[in-house]
């Protein structure tokens, strides 16, 4: 959202009090920042959910590739382990898809709808700015005729310009008053609007990670060898790797 005022000759009279202009700029600036933050949050959430889906799809692909490994045809124990892993990855992917769908429906879509309001707000600010420039232009003309010698034609022209000024002034003041009343209300409404979405985001994450804990707990119970610590498994792997390195076909020249 951007606001570039028109440049025209300024009337001598201060037609908009400085305090009013400061209030307007402050409230509008808060909404500009809110728009930027809303866009960034929507973009970040989309990137996050895309990355989540890519992660679980990759995990399923890896377990599927392992199932097609020739070792699974030769070793029943290895086949059982990979089958358990594949089942766990598919469960993880299913829950991940549910989580992403929930976030899309209850968080990303509401963010998108909220962001769609800002173009209309921006247009209302532009209309207010145009009304202000019309007001300043006519006020400058009034001041010009007021400074001239009060002849019949000048007084007639002054009366005409003042009549033109009145509805323009009223139009600006109405637009300005409406924006000054509604911009703070719109800004404050963000809390009530977004709170249900963020609560839904937290619930979706809690449900997902609770299920992940169950899935990997079950997988660990299926794969763990009783009495084997991580250090022992690492030592066994090193021993087997040393045996492989001792083979003449992989020995260094």
From TrEMBL:
Entries under PROSITE patterns matching the protein: BAR
Gene Ontology cellular component list: actin cytoskeleton; cytoplasm
Keywords on record: Cell cycle, Cell division, Coiled coil, Cytoplasm, Cytoskeleton, Septation
Organism: Vombatus ursinus
Source superkingdom: Eukaryota
Any GO molecular function: lipid binding
Ranges of residues in domain BAR: 9-232
Gene that produces this protein: BIN3
Function comment: Involved in cytokinesis and septation where it has a role in the localization of F-actin.
GO process annotations (BP): actin cortical patch localization; cell division; endocytosis; intracellular protein localization; myoblast migration involved in skeletal muscle regeneration; plasma membrane tubulation; regulation of lamellipodium assembly; skeletal muscle fiber development
Pfam family, one: BAR
Coiled-coil residues: 24-51, 121-148
Subcellular location: Cytoplasm, Cytoskeleton
Protein name per the record: Bridging integrator 3
Keyword Cytoplasm attributed: yes
């Amino acid at each position: 959202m951007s606001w570039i005022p028109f440049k025209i000759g300024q009337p001598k009279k201060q037609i908009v009090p400085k305090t009013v202009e400061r209030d307007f700029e402050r409230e509008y600036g808060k909404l500009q920042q809110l728009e930027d933050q809303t866009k960034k949050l929507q973009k970040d959430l989309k990137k996050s959910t895309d990355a989540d889906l890519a992660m679980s799809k990759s995990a399923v692909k890896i377990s599927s590739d392992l199932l097609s490994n020739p070792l699974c045809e030769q070793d029943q124990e290895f086949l059982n382990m990979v089958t358990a892993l594949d089942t766990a990855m598919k469960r993880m992917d299913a829950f991940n898809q549910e989580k992403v769908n929930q976030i899309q429906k209850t968080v990303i879509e509401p963010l998108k709808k909220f962001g769609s309001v800002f173009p209309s707000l921006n247009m209302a600010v532009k209309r207010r700015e145009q009304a202000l420039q019309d007001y300043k232009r006519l006020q400058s003309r009034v001041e010009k005729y007021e400074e001239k010698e009060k002849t019949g034609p000048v007084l007639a022209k002054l009366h005409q310009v003042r009549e033109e000024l009145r509805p323009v002034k009223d139009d600006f003041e109405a637009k300005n008053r409406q924006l000054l009343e509604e911009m703070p209300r719109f800004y404050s409404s963000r809390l009530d609007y977004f709170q249900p979405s963020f609560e839904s985001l937290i619930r979706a994450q809690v449900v997902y990670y609770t299920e992940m804990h169950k899935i990997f707990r079950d997988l660990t119970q299926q794969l763990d060898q009783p009495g084997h610590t991580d250090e022992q498994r690492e030592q066994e792997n090193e021993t087997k790797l040393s045996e492989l390195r001792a083979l003449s076909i992989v020995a260094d020249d």
